[in-house]
Amino acid sequence: MTEIKQNEVTKYIVISSDIVLPADAAMKIYESEYPVTVKETCFGLIVTGPEKDVLAVVEKIRQLDKNHIFIKDRGFPAGDERRCRATRGGGPRPGFHFLREEVGMLPAIGAALDELDAKEPVNEKHGEKRRLKVSDLEKIIEAELSR
Amino acid sequence: MAKVFIYPVNSLILADLVERFGHKPLTMMNQVREKVTNISLDSPPINITPEDPKIGLRYAAVEVPPGVRGRMTLIGPLIEETEAAIIVENPPTNFGCVGCNRTNELMKYLVRSKEVPILEVRYPESTEDARDFVNKIAAFLKSLPTENTGEDEKVEEKETIAEEGEK
């Protein structure tokens, strides 16, 4: 069985971007020299390592294309024999079908997040509600009356 | 930061959105990690300890199929921690570890009966749906407290009620 360390975490990095490929993200991690294990997959990467390092790496990768890179936890470490297809005689691993369904929806979710980001500054300007000062009200009334 | 229960419990999109907006998703994956990184456990299906069925019995009676109780062993403790929830109705895939409809019904019932803020949305099937889906989730997550926990809120609520009573 794969050696498992208690404080290690594993994350899926699912890439649905037009500008970042899984290989680019993997190279970025190798360059960063964090002590993590990286596995490239068809949909992105699996990263295993000490919690602090994995969280730092994952945040770095997310910033490559913030709204089109999605991350979730994974229970089993990368290459775990209980999930690895090499030792299970091939076929998709458990959980693959669910992920594949969700990956199909990611471009639309990414576009929606882009729109949300674009809308945000406008919303903030209009969203600020504050009490109208009496002096401001007077000015408005005077301006209206002087028309 | 609120602890947000998500359904489906292993959803990539929901887990990512909850984390993206600064909250903590309560997911099945973390529970599974605790199980599989425990040295005393070997491999499925021999992956339970004698304590696990007892935990499952807290949420489902002994007459309930063991699969439901087994799943509730992992999901039940998450529901206890829940401070808010996002439930997606009609997800396209309900198989694998979330494939038991009875467990799903029980889980949703338990979350709804907790009286925490809940957002119920439908799984998106088009780009417009996806926009609505993300907007609703973003608005819901932004409305949740970012620093206080649910317990603090309850204390505050009690204090305000007490103050009103005094008046």
Task: Give your account of this protein's structure.
The complex is a heterodimer of chains A (147) and B (167). Chain A has helices at residues 22-32, 51-62, 85-88, 96-127, 134-145, and strands at 8-15, 37-40, 44-50, 69-74. Chain A is of the alpha+beta class and 147 residues long. The longest helix of chain A has 32 residues, at 96-127. Chain A has a single domain, classed as 2-Layer Sandwich (Alpha-Beta Plaits), CATH 3.30.70. Helices cover 48% and strands 17% of the residues of chain A. In chain A, strands 2-3-1-4 form a 4-stranded antiparallel sheet, sandwiched between helices. Chain B is an alpha/beta fold and 167 residues long. Chain B has a single domain (3-165), classed as Rossmann fold. Chain B is 52% helix and 11% strand. Chain B has helices spanning 12-20, 28-36, 51-57, 66-81, 101-112, 127-143, 150-166, and strands at residues 3-7, 24-26, 84-89, 118-122. Chain B has a 4-stranded parallel sheet, sandwiched between helices. In chain B, helix 3 crosses helix 4. Chain B is globular. The mean pLDDT of chain B is 82. Chains A and B meet through strand 1, strand 4 and helix 4 of A and helix 1, helix 2 and helix 6 of B. Chain A: It comes from Methanosarcina acetivorans. Chain A: Pfam families: DUF2102. Chain A: This is Methanogenesis marker 6 protein.
Give the structure's gist in a few sentences:
Chain B: This is Methanogenesis marker 5 protein. By secondary structure, chain A is of the alpha+beta class.
Report the mean per-residue pLDDT of chain B as an integer: 82
How much of the sequence lies in strands of chain A comes to 15-25%
Query: What is the radius of gyration of chain A computed over CA atoms, rounded to a whole number of angstroms?
Result: 24 Å
> Strands of the largest sheet of chain B, in order across it?
2-1-3-4
Q: Return the string of H and E elements of chain A.
A: EHEEHEHHH
Tell how many strands the DSSP assignment of chain B holds: 4
Approximately what portion of the residues of chain B adopt beta-strand conformation?
A: 5-15%
Cα-to-Cα separation, first versus last residue of chain A: 85 Å
Biggest interface pair, counts:
A-B, 36 and 40 residues
CATH fold type of chain B: Rossmann fold
Largest sheet of chain A: 4 strands, antiparallel
